[in-house]
Amino acid sequence: ATPTALMVGTGRSARMGILIKNGEVLEAVNDVKTVIFDKTGTITVGKPQVTDVIGNSDKVLSIAASLEQSSEHPLATAILKKAKEAGLEMTPSQNFKAIEGKGVQADVDGESAFVGNDKLLTDMKVSDSLKAKMTTLQHQAKTVVFVGQGDQIIGLIAIQDAPKPTSEDAISALKSKGLKTVMLTGDNQAVSQAIADQVGIDQVVADVLPGDKADQVKKFQQSGKVAFVGDGINDAPALSTADVGIAMGSGTDIAIESGGIVLVKNDLRDVYKALELSKKTFNRIK
Ligand code: ADP
Ligand code: MG
């Protein structure tokens, strides 16, 4: 009877767009205490838009876009889109380098330039007025990147990635079952907290380098089983480390391969459904 119940259970969930790839997942679900979410593309829509440019906006945007032409980061896509809309010219860049969790660097017009967060500004002095502008934008849930040329900061670009309309309901359903919800992200603390507040997430772990996401999952595993929900290339190790890895169907191939459960409809509310269905199926076959 055991395999039949499993087939019936997983067949029903598959029709709902919830693919359960193995029995191990079903077994772990009963004991899940914490659900950890990636931010970009999982809690948020994943299509960031440029909202503010501080400084000489044409110059700031065209230098930033010249650099970001070589990057595939969602922030790069947003900056390129805005520069194109403004009809700005882009200069080819040389010696492009992506610095994980920080930003990008290259030579533009024979001068070194960069776009990225404050971790990239090793020795540069940020004026108090620029710091104040940055803080204000971050509290509006906007990610702020600095644009620099030579040894000067020439401006700021603020980029907003709105939460998915379903994220708040998805989180509150999990919390109603007594589960702890956590957001894990490489983005800055202030921005991440502002987004977490919008959707009701219990705890934020920000400024996490892509290679450290799996270690963060292990920390939470000290207080019970963990489900991790993500979509990106850099989420794959966390998805495999978690007791229950849940990948968004819209995610990268490697994320989908690493998840024990795949949400085909990309509806975050299906995290709750997937956990409930798995529990029912497991308790039937036990
Ligand atoms: P997430 O977990 O949100 O996907 P990432 O680790 O990809 O975060 O990026 C973390 C931070 O590094 C970004 O919020 C940004 O400040 C900076 N960053 C990374 N790549 C770029 C880029 N191409 N251009 C500008 N900033 C970048
Ligand atoms: Mg992501």
Give a structural overview.
With 286 residues, the protein is of the alpha/beta class. It contains twelve helices and 13 strands. It has a seven-stranded mixed β-sheet, with helices on both faces. Strands 3-8-7-6-5-4 form a six-stranded antiparallel β-sheet. The model has no long low-confidence stretch (mean pLDDT 92). Bound molecules: adenosine-5'-diphosphate (ADP) and magnesium ion.
Task: Lay out the secondary structure.
Elements: H1 2-15, E1 18-20, H2 23-29, E2 32-38, H3 39-43, E3 49-55, H4 57-68, H5 74-85, E4 93-99, E5 103-108, E6 111-116, H6 128-139, E7 142-149, E8 152-160, H7 167-176, E9 180-184, H8 189-199, E10 203-205, H9 213-221, E11 225-230, H10 236-241, E12 244-248, H11 253-258, E13 261-263, H12 270-285
Parallel strand pairs: 2-9, 2-11, 9-10, 11-12, 12-13
Antiparallel strand pairs: 1-13, 3-8, 4-5, 5-6, 6-7, 7-8
Helix pairs in contact: 1-12, 2-12, 4-5, 6-8
The structure holds adenosine-5'-diphosphate and magnesium ion (MG).
Q: How much beta, percentage-wise?
A: 25-35%
CATH homologous superfamily heading of the largest domain: HAD superfamily/HAD-like
Domain unit count: 2
Separate helix tally: 12
Q: Walk across the major sheet and give the strand order.
A: 1-13-12-11-2-9-10
Net shape: elongated
Low-confidence blocks of residues = none
Annotation, overall tally of beta strands: 13
CATH arch. level architecture of the largest domain: 3-Layer(aba) Sandwich
Mean pLDDT over the residues: 92
The H/E string reads HEHEHEHHEEEHEEHEHEHEHEHEH
Subcellular location: Cell membrane
Protein name: P-type Cu(+) transporter
Organism: Lentilactobacillus sunkii DSM 19904
Family: Belongs to the cation transport ATPase (P-type) (TC 3.A.3) family. Type IB subfamily.
